[in-house]
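Hi F.,

I've been meaning to write this up properly since the lab meeting, where we talked about keeping a consistent format for the predictions we share between groups. The idea is simple: the sequence comes first, exactly as it goes in, then the C-alpha coordinates exactly as they come out, then a line or two of notes. No screenshots and no reformatting. I'm using this chain as the first example so we have something concrete to point to.
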Amino acid sequence: MAAGDRVIRKAVVPMAGLGTRFFPASQACKKELFPVVGPDGIPRALFHYHLIALAAAGIDDVCLIVQPGEEALVRAYLAGPDKDYLKRLAEHPALVHEAEAMRHFAERVRFVEQKTQEGYGHAVFQTRTFANGESVLLCLGDHLFRGRKSSPYRALIASAASVAEGRSVSAVNRIGAAELKGYGTIAGARRAGNPRLIDVSLIIEKPDVETARAKLVVDGLPADTWLGWLGLHVLGPGIYDVLAQMIRDDVRDRGEFQLTRAQELQRQREGYLAIELEDAQRFDFGTPDDFVTNIAAFRK
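Output, unedited:
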Protein backbone atom coordinates (compact mmCIF):
# COMPACT_ATOMS: atom_id res chain seq x y z
CA MET A 1 0.00 0.00 0.00
CA ALA A 2 1.39 3.41 -0.93
CA ALA A 3 2.27 5.94 1.71
CA GLY A 4 -0.72 8.13 0.88
CA ASP A 5 -3.24 5.33 1.08
CA ARG A 6 -5.77 5.32 3.93
CA VAL A 7 -7.22 2.11 5.25
CA ILE A 8 -11.00 2.15 5.83
CA ARG A 9 -11.50 0.54 9.24
CA LYS A 10 -15.08 1.49 10.20
CA ALA A 11 -18.56 0.99 8.77
CA VAL A 12 -22.02 2.36 9.51
CA VAL A 13 -25.36 0.62 8.87
CA PRO A 14 -28.50 2.76 9.40
CA MET A 15 -31.50 0.80 10.66
CA ALA A 16 -33.45 3.42 12.59
CA GLY A 17 -36.29 3.85 10.09
CA LEU A 18 -39.89 3.34 11.12
CA GLY A 19 -40.66 0.86 8.33
CA THR A 20 -43.84 2.78 7.49
CA ARG A 21 -44.31 1.09 4.12
CA PHE A 22 -44.28 -2.31 5.86
CA PHE A 23 -47.01 -1.50 8.38
CA PRO A 24 -48.52 -3.47 10.07
CA ALA A 25 -45.75 -6.11 9.73
CA SER A 26 -43.24 -3.55 11.03
CA GLN A 27 -45.19 -3.49 14.30
CA ALA A 28 -44.20 -7.12 14.85
CA CYS A 29 -40.62 -6.98 13.58
CA LYS A 30 -38.20 -4.31 12.40
CA LYS A 31 -37.74 -4.32 8.63
CA GLU A 32 -33.99 -4.88 9.03
CA LEU A 33 -34.76 -8.03 11.06
CA PHE A 34 -37.03 -9.53 8.39
CA PRO A 35 -35.75 -12.98 7.36
CA VAL A 36 -33.85 -13.24 4.08
CA VAL A 37 -32.65 -16.63 2.82
CA GLY A 38 -29.12 -16.59 1.48
CA PRO A 39 -27.67 -18.56 -1.44
CA ASP A 40 -26.51 -21.13 1.13
CA GLY A 41 -30.10 -21.77 2.21
CA ILE A 42 -29.69 -20.23 5.68
CA PRO A 43 -32.31 -17.63 6.70
CA ARG A 44 -30.81 -14.59 8.42
CA ALA A 45 -32.01 -11.14 9.42
CA LEU A 46 -31.56 -8.67 6.57
CA PHE A 47 -28.93 -6.55 8.37
CA HIS A 48 -26.93 -9.68 9.27
CA TYR A 49 -25.69 -9.93 5.67
CA HIS A 50 -23.99 -6.55 5.99
CA LEU A 51 -22.01 -7.81 8.98
CA ILE A 52 -20.92 -10.89 7.04
CA ALA A 53 -19.89 -8.89 3.96
CA LEU A 54 -18.09 -6.25 6.02
CA ALA A 55 -16.13 -8.85 7.97
CA ALA A 56 -15.14 -10.52 4.70
CA ALA A 57 -13.91 -7.12 3.47
CA GLY A 58 -11.78 -6.68 6.58
CA ILE A 59 -14.06 -4.40 8.63
CA ASP A 60 -15.09 -5.55 12.10
CA ASP A 61 -15.75 -2.14 13.69
CA VAL A 62 -19.41 -1.56 12.77
CA CYS A 63 -21.86 0.98 14.14
CA LEU A 64 -25.60 0.33 13.82
CA ILE A 65 -27.94 3.33 13.94
CA VAL A 66 -31.12 2.36 15.78
CA GLN A 67 -34.17 3.92 17.38
CA PRO A 68 -34.20 4.40 21.16
CA GLY A 69 -34.60 1.07 22.93
CA GLU A 70 -33.73 -1.09 19.92
CA GLU A 71 -30.15 -1.94 20.85
CA ALA A 72 -31.39 -4.70 23.19
CA LEU A 73 -33.51 -6.17 20.39
CA VAL A 74 -30.58 -6.41 17.99
CA ARG A 75 -28.20 -7.67 20.67
CA ALA A 76 -30.68 -10.41 21.56
CA TYR A 77 -30.69 -11.53 17.94
CA LEU A 78 -26.89 -11.59 17.71
CA ALA A 79 -26.56 -13.39 21.05
CA GLY A 80 -28.09 -16.41 19.36
CA PRO A 81 -29.63 -19.48 20.97
CA ASP A 82 -29.24 -20.70 24.55
CA LYS A 83 -27.59 -24.04 25.42
CA ASP A 84 -30.78 -26.07 25.08
CA TYR A 85 -31.51 -24.66 21.64
CA LEU A 86 -27.88 -25.25 20.59
CA LYS A 87 -28.30 -28.93 21.43
CA ARG A 88 -31.16 -29.08 18.93
CA LEU A 89 -28.87 -27.54 16.30
CA ALA A 90 -26.11 -30.09 16.89
CA GLU A 91 -27.12 -32.19 13.89
CA HIS A 92 -26.78 -29.10 11.66
CA PRO A 93 -23.10 -28.08 11.80
CA ALA A 94 -23.60 -25.12 9.50
CA LEU A 95 -26.15 -23.63 11.90
CA VAL A 96 -23.90 -24.23 14.92
CA HIS A 97 -21.15 -22.36 13.08
CA GLU A 98 -23.65 -19.59 12.30
CA ALA A 99 -24.45 -19.20 16.01
CA GLU A 100 -20.75 -18.92 16.83
CA ALA A 101 -20.25 -16.27 14.16
CA MET A 102 -23.21 -14.27 15.47
CA ARG A 103 -21.69 -14.14 18.95
CA HIS A 104 -18.49 -12.85 17.37
CA PHE A 105 -20.43 -10.03 15.71
CA ALA A 106 -22.19 -9.24 19.00
CA GLU A 107 -18.83 -8.58 20.65
CA ARG A 108 -17.71 -6.13 17.97
CA VAL A 109 -20.78 -4.16 16.92
CA ARG A 110 -21.56 -0.74 18.39
CA PHE A 111 -24.76 1.28 18.50
CA VAL A 112 -25.92 4.88 18.33
CA GLU A 113 -29.51 6.10 18.61
CA GLN A 114 -31.36 8.42 16.29
CA LYS A 115 -33.78 9.85 18.82
CA THR A 116 -35.92 11.76 16.29
CA GLN A 117 -36.82 10.88 12.69
CA GLU A 118 -35.25 13.79 10.82
CA GLY A 119 -33.82 12.16 7.72
CA TYR A 120 -30.99 10.01 6.42
CA GLY A 121 -28.40 12.75 6.85
CA HIS A 122 -29.52 13.29 10.43
CA ALA A 123 -29.15 9.55 11.09
CA VAL A 124 -25.61 9.50 9.69
CA PHE A 125 -24.66 12.54 11.78
CA GLN A 126 -25.31 10.53 14.94
CA THR A 127 -22.17 8.49 14.13
CA ARG A 128 -19.79 11.46 14.27
CA THR A 129 -18.22 10.35 17.56
CA PHE A 130 -17.89 6.78 16.26
CA ALA A 131 -16.07 8.01 13.12
CA ASN A 132 -13.68 10.07 15.25
CA GLY A 133 -12.15 11.87 12.29
CA GLU A 134 -11.86 8.80 10.05
CA SER A 135 -13.59 7.92 6.82
CA VAL A 136 -16.41 5.39 7.21
CA LEU A 137 -18.12 2.95 4.86
CA LEU A 138 -21.86 3.66 4.85
CA CYS A 139 -24.13 0.78 3.81
CA LEU A 140 -27.78 1.45 2.99
CA GLY A 141 -29.59 -0.60 5.62
CA ASP A 142 -32.58 -1.91 3.64
CA HIS A 143 -30.52 -2.94 0.60
CA LEU A 144 -28.09 -5.81 0.16
CA PHE A 145 -25.17 -5.95 -2.25
CA ARG A 146 -22.97 -8.56 -3.82
CA GLY A 147 -20.78 -8.88 -6.89
CA ARG A 148 -21.02 -11.43 -9.64
CA LYS A 149 -17.26 -11.98 -9.35
CA SER A 150 -16.03 -9.90 -6.40
CA SER A 151 -17.37 -8.07 -3.34
CA PRO A 152 -18.58 -4.50 -4.00
CA TYR A 153 -17.74 -3.68 -0.36
CA ARG A 154 -14.13 -4.71 -0.94
CA ALA A 155 -13.97 -2.99 -4.34
CA LEU A 156 -15.15 0.35 -2.94
CA ILE A 157 -12.87 0.12 0.09
CA ALA A 158 -9.86 -0.60 -2.13
CA SER A 159 -10.66 2.29 -4.46
CA ALA A 160 -11.16 4.73 -1.61
CA ALA A 161 -7.95 3.65 0.10
CA SER A 162 -5.89 4.22 -3.03
CA VAL A 163 -7.33 7.44 -4.50
CA ALA A 164 -9.61 9.28 -2.06
CA GLU A 165 -7.03 11.21 0.03
CA GLY A 166 -9.75 11.93 2.59
CA ARG A 167 -12.47 12.72 0.07
CA SER A 168 -15.73 10.81 -0.15
CA VAL A 169 -16.10 8.05 -2.75
CA SER A 170 -19.47 6.55 -3.67
CA ALA A 171 -20.25 3.40 -5.61
CA VAL A 172 -22.48 4.06 -8.62
CA ASN A 173 -24.18 1.88 -11.19
CA ARG A 174 -26.13 2.48 -14.38
CA ILE A 175 -29.80 3.37 -14.09
CA GLY A 176 -32.56 4.21 -16.54
CA ALA A 177 -35.29 6.85 -16.55
CA ALA A 178 -37.67 4.79 -14.41
CA GLU A 179 -35.04 4.48 -11.66
CA LEU A 180 -34.13 8.16 -11.37
CA LYS A 181 -36.90 8.72 -8.82
CA GLY A 182 -35.17 6.39 -6.37
CA TYR A 183 -31.53 7.45 -6.29
CA GLY A 184 -29.04 10.27 -6.02
CA THR A 185 -27.56 10.76 -9.49
CA ILE A 186 -24.28 12.32 -10.63
CA ALA A 187 -22.58 14.24 -13.40
CA GLY A 188 -18.85 13.99 -13.90
CA ALA A 189 -15.84 13.08 -16.00
CA ARG A 190 -14.08 9.73 -16.15
CA ARG A 191 -10.35 9.63 -15.50
CA ALA A 192 -8.37 8.75 -18.59
CA GLY A 193 -6.17 6.19 -16.86
CA ASN A 194 -9.01 4.62 -14.87
CA PRO A 195 -12.38 5.14 -16.60
CA ARG A 196 -14.36 3.51 -13.78
CA LEU A 197 -13.26 6.39 -11.54
CA ILE A 198 -15.26 9.60 -11.95
CA ASP A 199 -14.53 13.11 -10.74
CA VAL A 200 -18.03 14.19 -9.75
CA SER A 201 -19.19 17.65 -10.86
CA LEU A 202 -22.81 17.57 -9.60
CA ILE A 203 -25.02 15.43 -7.35
CA ILE A 204 -28.82 15.66 -7.41
CA GLU A 205 -31.22 13.59 -5.32
CA LYS A 206 -33.94 11.81 -7.31
CA PRO A 207 -33.92 14.10 -10.36
CA ASP A 208 -36.65 14.15 -12.97
CA VAL A 209 -35.80 12.99 -16.50
CA GLU A 210 -35.55 16.50 -17.93
CA THR A 211 -33.07 17.58 -15.24
CA ALA A 212 -31.04 14.40 -15.67
CA ARG A 213 -30.81 14.87 -19.44
CA ALA A 214 -29.77 18.49 -19.08
CA LYS A 215 -27.38 18.34 -16.13
CA LEU A 216 -26.32 14.81 -15.19
CA VAL A 217 -24.01 13.74 -17.98
CA VAL A 218 -21.16 11.26 -17.63
CA ASP A 219 -19.14 10.33 -20.71
CA GLY A 220 -19.30 6.79 -22.04
CA LEU A 221 -22.99 6.11 -21.32
CA PRO A 222 -25.77 5.27 -23.80
CA ALA A 223 -28.64 7.70 -24.27
CA ASP A 224 -31.00 8.02 -21.30
CA THR A 225 -28.62 6.14 -19.04
CA TRP A 226 -27.21 7.70 -15.89
CA LEU A 227 -25.01 6.83 -12.92
CA GLY A 228 -26.87 6.68 -9.61
CA TRP A 229 -25.94 5.77 -6.08
CA LEU A 230 -25.57 2.04 -5.55
CA GLY A 231 -26.07 2.42 -1.78
CA LEU A 232 -22.46 2.07 -0.59
CA HIS A 233 -20.44 5.19 0.25
CA VAL A 234 -17.03 5.80 1.77
CA LEU A 235 -17.70 9.11 3.49
CA GLY A 236 -14.73 11.34 4.21
CA PRO A 237 -14.66 12.98 7.66
CA GLY A 238 -15.68 16.33 6.17
CA ILE A 239 -19.23 15.04 5.73
CA TYR A 240 -19.84 15.49 9.45
CA ASP A 241 -18.87 19.17 9.30
CA VAL A 242 -21.31 19.67 6.43
CA LEU A 243 -24.11 17.88 8.27
CA ALA A 244 -23.41 19.85 11.45
CA GLN A 245 -23.80 23.12 9.52
CA MET A 246 -26.98 21.90 7.83
CA ILE A 247 -28.51 20.97 11.18
CA ARG A 248 -27.39 24.25 12.77
CA ASP A 249 -28.85 26.27 9.88
CA ASP A 250 -31.93 24.02 9.57
CA VAL A 251 -31.24 23.22 5.89
CA ARG A 252 -33.86 20.61 5.01
CA ASP A 253 -35.34 19.02 1.91
CA ARG A 254 -38.92 17.77 2.17
CA GLY A 255 -38.73 18.44 5.91
CA GLU A 256 -35.62 16.31 6.56
CA PHE A 257 -31.84 16.58 6.63
CA GLN A 258 -30.88 14.74 3.46
CA LEU A 259 -27.54 13.01 3.02
CA THR A 260 -27.45 13.67 -0.74
CA ARG A 261 -27.65 17.43 -0.12
CA ALA A 262 -24.72 17.07 2.30
CA GLN A 263 -22.76 15.08 -0.28
CA GLU A 264 -23.26 17.81 -2.90
CA LEU A 265 -22.14 20.49 -0.41
CA GLN A 266 -19.12 18.39 0.49
CA ARG A 267 -18.33 18.05 -3.23
CA GLN A 268 -18.35 21.83 -3.59
CA ARG A 269 -15.89 22.16 -0.70
CA GLU A 270 -13.55 19.21 -1.16
CA GLY A 271 -14.30 17.44 -4.42
CA TYR A 272 -16.03 14.07 -4.65
CA LEU A 273 -15.31 10.79 -6.41
CA ALA A 274 -17.45 7.94 -7.68
CA ILE A 275 -16.50 4.46 -8.79
CA GLU A 276 -18.66 2.61 -11.30
CA LEU A 277 -19.07 -0.98 -10.10
CA GLU A 278 -20.43 -2.77 -13.16
CA ASP A 279 -20.14 -6.16 -11.46
CA ALA A 280 -22.22 -5.16 -8.43
CA GLN A 281 -25.76 -6.36 -7.79
CA ARG A 282 -28.19 -4.39 -5.63
CA PHE A 283 -31.13 -6.03 -3.86
CA ASP A 284 -33.66 -3.43 -2.71
CA PHE A 285 -35.89 -4.50 0.20
CA GLY A 286 -37.32 -1.03 0.82
CA THR A 287 -40.94 -1.65 -0.25
CA PRO A 288 -43.21 -4.71 0.03
CA ASP A 289 -43.12 -5.36 -3.72
CA ASP A 290 -39.35 -4.95 -3.88
CA PHE A 291 -39.05 -7.27 -0.90
CA VAL A 292 -41.04 -9.99 -2.65
CA THR A 293 -38.99 -9.64 -5.83
CA ASN A 294 -35.60 -9.56 -4.16
CA ILE A 295 -36.21 -12.22 -1.54
CA ALA A 296 -36.30 -14.67 -4.47
CA ALA A 297 -33.47 -13.03 -6.41
CA PHE A 298 -31.10 -12.98 -3.43
CA ARG A 299 -31.61 -16.70 -2.79
CA LYS A 300 -30.11 -17.61 -6.19
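Notes:
Residues 93-108 form the longest helix (16 residues).
The domain at 10-299 is CATH 3.90.550.10 (Spore Coat Polysaccharide Biosynthesis Protein SpsA; Chain A).

If this format works for you, I'll send the rest the same way.

G.
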